[in-house]
Amino acid sequence: MNILVINAGSSSLKYQLFQMKDESVLAKGKIERIGMETAILTHEPAGKAEVREVSEILEHTTAIRKVLALLVHPEHGVLASTAEIDAVGHRVVHGGESFKNSVLVTDEVKQEIKRLFDLAPLHNPAHMLGIIAVEANMPDVPQAVVFDTAFHQTMPAPAYLYPIPMVLYRKHKVRRYGFHGTSHKYVSERAAAFLGRPLEQLKLVTCHIGNGASCAAIWGGQSVDTSMGMTPLEGLMMGTRSGDLDPAIVPYAMGKEDLTLGEISSMLNKHSGLQAISGGSSDMREIVEAMEAGDKNAALAFDMYEYRLRKYIGAYAAAMNGIDAIVFTAGVGENSELLRKAVCEHLTFLGVEFDEEANRQGRGLERRITTSSSRVQVLVIPTNEELVIAEDTYRLVQAAVD
Ligand code: AMP
Is pLDDT of 122 > 90? Predict the structure, then answer.
């Protein structure tokens, strides 16, 4: 069975085509700047040369048509015909309280995703465009949706409610939802396999540290808390997002700087975090380079980022009354030796015995960066959200056939 995984954004569309027999990737790529005359398409077919095209792609239906044409292209393609695509799986950011698991797309599911537009105004409408574009091009192919929030639906009320008047939750569903659930689920399962222990017996803190960043407390395979909240702004300090701050800062800063709601929201989402403190870059590679060259602002940004991450790990150790392992994943978590070292060296009180040599080796591989006698193990596990989407889609389509 071949499954096409789609991650549609408002002006972009990423795709990966999986052959499920061995879970290999037959082709992957992305289209950026949808809606413009100069949209950029990058297509990477396995074992063939990469293709890059600049052309006018004004909407998602055209984008999908372009992708399908490339997948069956005589020179750049990997399939004889689009009939070889058995199903399509979509990433959907917000499933609200309605979706606790991945589901096949039906009219009711589409209605519900639309109802949730308010909770994720930047993301859910774009995902819906992707679903409709696939329907327009391949009306008979089953589609599934996999939600970033679904894995965190197991959180108990004390973790997901905010201490504000309950009317906001009852009437408007204001609560913690959490994000990156597909990644937290994947790396927690891989961690259990790596440790050779049943997931049901483990207390894990998973740290998805990329451009966006979140931690999750995973107890017995279930998310019991996570740092992102009703939106992906809460929690850790990120590339351009502030993470946690005193809510009273919002009206105060608006008054003092004469900012509108849109401006303060843009400031906290797009101009805060590493970028604001370093005074330049939001990219951890550049922060580390600048820090090593003696830039004091970059060093402060790094220290704040690490400090805030470490506080969450400590909080989740308390939330679960202990932990067995900490997992690092995503762009920064998988690649920044320095950040992992700084965090681990401050967690000796938990029983973390850092292995400096192991931390430097094995890039791209699942590995342990603590000594074998360390009471709490620290693992680096490359995430693979697309594979989870393909697997869930495969399972749902198989179940529908059986
Ligand atoms: P993601 O959102 O998971 O794709 O992560 C993207 C982020 O990973 C980038 O913004 C970089 O800050 C970070 N990153 C990638 N490679 C490295 C590296 N070698 N060292 C430090 N950070 C890295």
Answer: no
Ligand 1 pocket mutation pick from 228, 282, 309, 335 by most atoms within 8 angstroms of CB: 335
Summarize the annotated binding site for ATP as residue ranges.
14, 208-212, 283-285, 331-335
Q: Is 383 in the pocket of ligand 1 (CB under 6 A)?
A: no
> Topology of 2-147 in CATH?
Nucleotidyltransferase; domain 5 (3.30.420)
Cα–Cα dist 352/258, whole Å: 47
pLDDT by residue (tens digit) across 31-74? Answer: 999 999 999 999 999 999 999 999 999 999 999 999 999 999 99
> Quick check: is 246 catalytic?
no
> Domains of the chain: which residue ranges?
2-147, 196-385
Do domains 2-147 and 196-385 share one topology? The answer is yes
Query: CB neighbours (10 Å) of residue 318?
Result: 10
Instruction: Name the residue among 98, 266, 269 with its Cα closest to residue 177.
Output: 98
Under CATH, domain 196-385 is a member of which superfamily? Answer: ATPase, nucleotide binding domain (3.30.420.40)
Indicate the pTM of the whole model. 0.94
How far is ligand 1, taken at its centre, from the CA of residue 281, in Å? 12
Ligand 1 atom at minimum distance from 212 CA: 2
Predicted local distance difference test score (pLDDT) of residue 82: 94
Which residue among 22, 148, 258, 295 is the active-site one?
A: 148
Beta strands in 93-237 (DSSP E): 103-104, 143-147, 203-209, 213-219, 222-226
Q: Which atom of ligand 1 is nearest to the CA of 274?
A: 12
337 CA: nearest ligand 1 atom: 20
| Model confidence band, residue 168 (pLDDT cutoffs 50, 70, 90) | very high
The DSSP line for 237-259 is: --SS---S--TTHHHHHHHHHT-
Q: What is the mean pLDDT of the chain?
A: 96
Tell me phi and psi for residue 55, to 5 degrees.
-155, 170
In this predicted model, what pLDDT tens digit does every residue of 352-397 receive, in sequence order?
A: 999 999 999 988 999 999 999 999 999 999 999 999 999 999 999 9
- Which residues define the annotated binding site for Mg(2+)? 7, 385
